[in-house]
Specification:
Strands 2-3-1-4 form a four-stranded antiparallel beta sheet, covered by helices on one side. Helix 1 packs antiparallel against helix 3. The protein is an alpha+beta fold. The N and C termini lie close together (11 Å). The chain has three helices and four strands; from the N terminus they run E-H-E-E-H-H-E.
Amino acid sequence: MFHHVFFWLDRPEDRDALIAGLESLRAIPQIRALHIGIPAATEQRDVVEGGFTVSELMQFDSLADQKAYQDHPLHLRFVEQCGHLWSRVVVYDVETVSP
């Protein structure tokens, strides 16, 4: 399964602090893969949402692993330490239907 999170920051200058916080999540053993990114400088089209500041995409082997991540002390600490940085967050949790 995939867990894709988009963050809109209150202050763009806090981007590096958020990225550092996201990097700290790599230590959570249930995360199979973690990709952190910023909006790409692609062609502007009506279907492209580029207003976010940072995104993270995680891959898990199962819903149980994703739940363990949500409850993990490092994730809870990340939310506590970095939660004040964003003004909006949107999460897409996706189960894989094809290999």
